[in-house]
User: Fold this.
Amino acid sequence: MSLSLLSSILIDGIAYAMILFMITVGLSMTMGLMRVVNLAHGAFAMLGGFFAATIPQRLGVPAWLGFLLAIALVGLVALLFERILLRRFYGRDDLDQMLVTIGLMFLATAAVNLMFGSTVTSVALPELFNGTVDLGFRSIPRHRLIVVGCGLVVVCVLWLTVDRSSFGIRVRAAVDNAPIARAIGIDTTKIYAATFVMGAALAALGGIAGAELLPMESTYASKYLVILLAVVAVGGNGNLFGSFFAALLLGIVETSMKYMVPQLASAAFFLTMIIVLLVRPQGLFGRHA
Amino acid sequence: MNTVTAPRAVPAPSRARPWMQLRGELVLLLVGLLAFVLFPHDLGLLTNMATMSIFALSLSLVLGQAGIATLGQAALYGSGAYVAGWTALYLTADPIAGLLLGGLGGGVIAVLSGAVMLRSTKLTLVMLTIAVAQLLLELANWARWLTGGDDGLAGFNIAPLFGIWEFSFLSYTGYFYALGALVLVYFLLRNVVESPFGLTAKAIRQDPGRVQALGGRVYLHLLAVYTVGGIVAGLAGALTAQTSKVANLFMLDFSTSAGVVVMIVLGGTRRLSGAVLGTVAYMTIHHIASTLNPYHWLFIIGSMLIVVLIVLPEGLIGLFDRAVAYARQPRRSGVAR
Assistant:
């Protein structure tokens, strides 16, 4: 294997992994915290991408402000969804939770199709993302570097929030034992809502940043659903670094197969997942339930 | 899945009226014949409804009775379809042989994949079932010389049923073949569900730990249930391939697995009749809505799913049960007086 092939695999693989991480970390958190499998999570990334594609033009604001607005809007949608619908399903059967969120994914797909059409919509990125950076031995698209940077910032900020802030302490208490956390006066309802909104906003960020690799179309949510779930299952739910390393593992496996044996890239992805889950059913970093 | 349902009084089988035991099968047969008379121009749709009902029945056993959370039932269905296609292409054109081999194919895939998957539970299990189906899909896509890849496996001929009735475009044979298979599968599965084997599966759904403590072998039992489900799903796939004369990648697709779960949830997961009712309801709505616009269809099915889960957790069959209970109430109070 030549050095340039290896470096291409690593750059694209890591960028892809960071996108997967940003989108899935919220899903993993809600699963660890509320024990809800939210199959509509990909829809938040999709909404983020579509809002980011339209808001800057419609409102005539700079791209970065449009992106922030898009992310905030997705957070609002997520808040409404959690408060109105999802909270009724805490404590219900896993299957009921999956189905109600699948129903929501269908609605989101239909709504996006109605508003934006069924063709692939490209997200216009600011100037900053274009061009390449010369590293001496090879040049890297600037987009990839920014995506990787974004992913690393997200993992650091999240780690600090969960590990160091008082909010993080309460989140961890609710993950470990929700009834006891409530009994000592932690408002788990607020924590659930805040975490859910945060996860959705991160998914929107991932959707926008990754629109070049995972293009925005109305079937986005269902098309990438299985991949997102795979990352969460491999990482172990509710674990920040689990999601991070699972995204890296699966992202690099799939990207390297795409460079070498493209027909079997997805097969290799799922085979990796099956092997990990057979060896560690609770995921790479998951704890026994 | 830990809710313990209140014991429902199961009426003892009455010797005086043996047809009462077969009333599900009789109703199914009569409705099938009635549909044939009323909608002679939609035979293709009706045939699909019958084959999908068999597929939904397989999931109703696996998920509704035994509580095996799966979003990969298409793996078993698609395998049955391809095996039936290969049988017709390379072995024999006899429909019954293809059907049985298709069932066998589904069963073999179920026993192999179930053996590695069924020790896990919850999300891990769901993900493994999805992964197995996706893996088969990718392999089928890759092995073009065997499966035809994107174009599907077509160009096989099915010999006349029992050597008498020809399968041809818009023929009655396909419909009655599928309907007959549906009634037979329903009868067999109902007996499985009511047998000690089926009751044990139900007990495992409600509390696997207790079944284990009582000396039940949970893993082996679930594997057996999953295999039976695989055989039935394989039969359904084989029937679909034979009546539509094609086996394609869509039959292994995730959306096929998700669709059949939606069907049984609409109808009601706890009863076999719910699976048939849900399939018929789903496909009728699909038929009407998708002629308007495929995305309106998603609106309708999405909102139906949410509404059913919130107001009618036991599915459409629950509406029917409530109506029956309501109708019986005055009579019962009359007896009390």
Summary: Chain A has a mean pLDDT of 84.
